[in-house]
Amino acid sequence: MVPSLPLDVLVHILYQIPPSRDLDSISVRTIVQCSLTNTLFREAAAIPALWQQHYQVRYLHANEASEGQRKAETNGNWKLMYAARRMIDMKVLKHLDSIVMKRVGRYDHANALTKFLFDAWDVLEIETGMVDSSRHLKIREFGERHSLSATRVYWASAVLASIGQTYAVGLWSSLRLGNNSVPFVQAFSSISCFFGKHPDEISSMLISLNSRCKSYLSRLNIPLSHTDPNYDSKKLCILICDFMSNEGYGPVVPHNSTFSYFPVRVLVHISVPDPEVDDFYVDVFGSQTILTLRDDIPAILARQGIQADSMMHYISPSGAASMLLRNGRNILSSLNIPATPLSLIRPSALLALTIFLVLTGGGRLVIQLMSQAEPLDCATFITEALIPSLDGAGKVQDDLHQASQKGLEEEAISAQEIKLRSPEETVHHFVGMLFEHKRYNYTALITGWDPVCKASESWIKEMKVLDLPRGRDQPFYHVVCMDSSSRYVAEDNIKPLLSASNELLIQMCQNIAILPKLFTGVLTKPKTRSTELRNVPLEEQRASPPPTVTMIITDTETNETLKPPIQHIQPSISRSTSRTPSESRVPPPVHPSIHYGSESPVTPPGYAATTKPTESITYIFEPRPAENAMLLRPAETGGREARPPYYISVTLNCFTPSSHITSIRKYERQGELVGDFEIAAKESKNVSTVYFRGYENPIEEVLVPRLFRNQWTWKPTETHLVLYWDDSAGGNSIACFKSKDKTNTNLLAKFIPRSHMRKPGREIEYTKFEVTPAGHEVFDDILISALIIERLRTNA
């Protein structure tokens, strides 16, 4: 018989088992199995200190009050605390299982999960694997077993965001009640909750950033203590700004600082310990970093039209509440920037509107907030935190309660609905099918269908649905595009994708954020038998080799009861021979139930933007003399993706007719305004200005001539973008670069004026605009700055 090991040796051995944070901790299972061996092992495994490292690695987050209660109830016994948290984990996972497996009652379980708050955070975070749910989507062939992992990760991530939102609203509501004990960093770190990040993650980043900054200053031998005789607070602030700029950040908050509610941009107020020395301000965005209270501040305020007797309102330190409101306004303004990723638009709008509602109680924002809210939001943070936070604003509470309950009731009805295909309904396509839009050529995925168009009469009229071959009495499909936008498409405009490359399928999985909510993976069929092509038109069979039918494995979200038949690719004669009219002058709209801040369906920001091209595209400025305008459009695309056209017009300033205003709009005369500018006449007292991204500034502040008159730097307000223009190449053309190093690698665009006069027999020559693939990412900036420079170059 093998002699027993001493207790202290067994304890030492168990201490060597490394802790882990996986869902089914092998380390803890090993300890538990050891405890079942005999009494001595059980005694060794029961030592509380042994469990401390396992608890602290597994559980990084908790509700502060709940954690204190657990410690009190267990007398700080780490093993008992671990067991208590594991019991919570089991309850959380049971709710998550119900959310994933069954749509009916889904949001009741989500509501129950939210009430755990940060006690549920760790197990849900482990469920996500710390990666995006799209990473779990797999491409499988027929016969392979599919997994619910992608859908499970999607819902775990969504509930994490709801928990964070509930916490953030509770914290911000205390600011509304005048609680000044909430630290500024804590209030702002909670913004991350609306993007599924724990506020402690931001705090950890700030701690690491602070450590790196101190190391940077120490290497430069900069004194950090005001008691040091060589301490220079202004120099210290400038170097901190330099460090943050090198790290890729914009705003900088030095130590011993508060914010002031300054017009145009925020200033940092630096409190100087020496009573003999004036406090000063740091302009973290400006070219002049240090601003004095006696000289610089009054001059800046005067330029903004602010009188001296109102100065204290703008330079006094601002609290977390007022700065959160300002941040909310900035977020809403940024959503109009075309470069804003579509995946950030909804959570950003939800964040900004929530801030306004919590801190101001403004009832007029309820409609806008609910236009962005989904059933999960209604069931979780709106019900559990936002409505209770508005105590005292009875009407706003009632409006929010009614709107959220209406949303949940509609979802409950939809969850119970089962759509059955009948012989009378000729719905040719199925949920999960990839297709290409016949007119606009974008690729999308079907997520639902209606037997006839169920949009409003105004939408049908606006989109010219009645001009389609089959009008409104045909199936209409709810679809999601590669940029995650939702649309409503007539069957007349759908061209099934009979084959799709793996690259396209992978791109689809990565780009469509909502995909894991609706589907569990991608299913392809390696070969298609000839019998399965019997309904494909003969010309399509001859035009391409036997296709690979692509479809998506659905989960319980869609409630479609019949599997799609192979005949889904059968088009009717009218659709294969008739010309499809336009549903709209711009690409089709989002689904009619989706609203963006108004009570009528509108196109979301950047909706019609195309994908980034792979090579340079030449555009031409086509004159429209009768309209005193011109259209910027691709000279020819050759099948490539190109930016939609811009409509550029010139009008007179009614107050100063000698001055002209140039406006740039998307698509047409009444299209979305990109920006405008006015070059004031030399005899006028007016200032030349440019309006862009919601800000109007003197042109001289955003378009700065360099040392020589043939070079300019474009630096728009509220962005870190810098463009470098140069016309030294000759030929009247000007080139735009993304850095001072003017090489072809950094080239973004070229503006090439026409070089020949018109005469009979000569082909019309247009002014050209060549834009590289990288230039398309900042197209609006390049275009408006080029037009201003050309006006300045040719102005008398």
Automatic annotation (TrEMBL):
Molecular function terms from GO: DNA binding
> Where does the chain cross the membrane?
none
This protein's superkingdom?
A: Eukaryota
The protein's matches in InterPro entries, at most eight in alphabetical order, are given as: Clp_protease_adapter_ClpF (IPR053189), DUF6593 (IPR046528), F-box-like_dom_sf (IPR036047), Hemimethylated_DNA-bd_dom (IPR011722), Hemimethylated_DNA-bd_sf (IPR036623)
Ranges for the region named Disordered are 567-606
Extent of Low complexity compositional bias: 571-585
Q: Where is the Hemimethylated DNA-binding domain?
A: 426-527
The record's section on PANTHER family has: HEMIMETHYLATED DNA-BINDING DOMAIN-CONTAINING PROTEIN
Q: What name does this protein carry?
A: F-box domain-containing protein
